[in-house]
Specification:
Elements lengths: L8 H4 L22 H5 L2 E2 L3 E6 L4 E6 L2 E3 L3 E4 L5 E5 L2 E4 L4 H22 L5 H14 L8 E6 L2 E7 L5 E4 L1 E5 L2 H11 L6 H18 L7 E7 L2 E7 L7
Antiparallel strand pairs: 1-4, 2-3, 2-11, 3-12, 4-5, 6-7, 7-8, 8-9, 9-10, 12-13
Helix pairs in contact: 5-6
């Protein structure tokens, strides 16, 4: 090897700033979206609520989509969707990211059932959701996962980094502070689904009064052993 081109590499590279014997650290990619782009992304803005009850789980969301909270782009968005025979997921954040996440979770749940011949437990479903958010391409979403299994009723808040936290009730979205005030006062362990739907609707109504990203009515999801029932109401008086 003496005298070969390979043996003279160190000498040839001695004038460069880069050291061939040290690892090369790449640069982080530029943000895919500019600040101007962000203003034009449809977001749910949103107030979403999930509660465990004596009968199962109740989830509630408002019905508004907006452009950065400045312009109402849609007044009839269903922000809670069934993803499993006895589980549902709310949308909070970017509409595209949330819709993609819901489709993916529904597909994975169906695939699990087809392969194993049994439904996913809520623990497995929440772990899958967290892993998907942590490593997936789902842009700016912060959903709530709720459902029941053999162990009982479950509510999980999911953050964009894949964090999963179980609780008796939780709220996400731009109107969360307003809705939390209602739930802190009115939520009690052992509520029936009918009682919980009224509490959840009051929480959404409170947020709608002051949060510009939330509005136009309420969707209520009731989850029991029989399945998931989702209804929309433009008038809060229908459920209060």
């Amino acid at each position: 090897m003496h005298g070969s081109d390979f043996s003279r590499n160190k000498e040839r590279l001695s004038g460069n700033d880069a050291n061939p014997y040290e690892p090369e650290i790449g640069s982080l990619p530029d943000n895919e979206f500019s600040q101007e782009d962000m203003k034009n992304i449809n977001k749910t803005g949103t107030t979403t609520i999930g509660m465990t009850t004596a009968d199962g789980v109740v989830m509630a969301t408002d019905m508004r989509a907006s452009l950065a909270g400045r312009f109402v782009s849609n007044k009839n968005v269903q922000k809670v969707e069934q993803i499993h025979p006895t589980a549902a997921l709310t949308m909070a954040g970017s509409v595209g990211g949330a819709q993609s996440f819901i489709r993916t979770m529904r597909i994975e749940s169906n695939l699990y059932e087809s392969r194993r011949g049994e439904q996913m437990s809520m623990q497995a479903l929440s772990t899958l959701a967290g892993n998907m958010l942590r490593g997936g391409p789902f842009f700016m979403v912060s959903p709530i996962l709720g459902g029941i299994d053999e162990e009982g009723s479950h509510i999980y808040s999911l953050d964009p980094a894949g964090g999963v936290m179980a609780d008796d009730y939780t709220v996400t979205g731009s109107g969360m502070q307003l809705a939390y005030g209602v739930l802190e006062q009115d939520y009690e362990e052992g509520l029936s689904n009918e009682e919980a739907k009224a509490v959840a609707a009051r929480g959404i109504k409170s947020a709608v009064e002051r949060d510009t990203g939330s509005g136009n009515g309420v969707f209520l999801a009731e989850i029991t052993e029989e399945g998931v029932d989702i209804t929309g109401h433009k008038d809060f008086d229908d459920v209060l």
